[in-house]
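Support request, please re-run this one:
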Amino acid sequence: MSSASGATAQQKLVFSTLEHAPNGRIGSEILKIAYAKLGLNFETYYTSGKRALVLSSSGVVDGEVLRTSDVAQKYPSLIKVDVPLLTLMNVVFVNRHRSSGEVFMDLKNTRVGFLNGVEQLDAYTQGFHHIWRAESFRELFEMLSLGKLDAVISEKTAGKIEIHALGLESVVTLDKVIAPETLYHFLHEKHAQLVPRISDVLQQMKSSGEMEQIANRAVLEIVIQGNK
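Re-run finished. Output below.
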């Protein structure tokens, strides 16, 4: 991939995000419309979580579709657009025979899987004894349904989509949400002048309810596609 030039030069911006992650697709739909309001074309580059950050922080692409707030501290070349896009809700999925009242610390001694490249879950599972990092949500939930994993930690929407797609009536969630975090859009520092402009557009979309409508429509489309 060649380095992306400035927005005013080519009128197109490319943003990286995690492949197989519904939040990336939902965020992309919101941002595609937001950037169109500024007369700019928006393109998403799907890749692994770690590679996405390498590309965005080095300026090979123009930023991240969405990430948690702490990315700005770890990657100072990325500037956070301070308008919340979505809320990340990680929950634990288990087969129905497991108790919904299970003590969360017990997870340390069970076979737990989550999506590779999710830094938040890498941190959360420090000290866990049996971890599987999968390359897709489909892989995680297939392994759970086959009994190869005892639990899956996944973003709630992504998990529900896979449950519907695979017809897993036996899979349920435990009650507790793991460290819910707000997701924000990030621009590489070479586009610092664009930050207040896209921030104003996103704030208007959020206040009017347009952002929520786009997100809801995107979730429905993902569910329908997953069931085909």
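The chain is about 40% helix and 30% strand. Confidence is low (pLDDT under 50) at residues 2-6.
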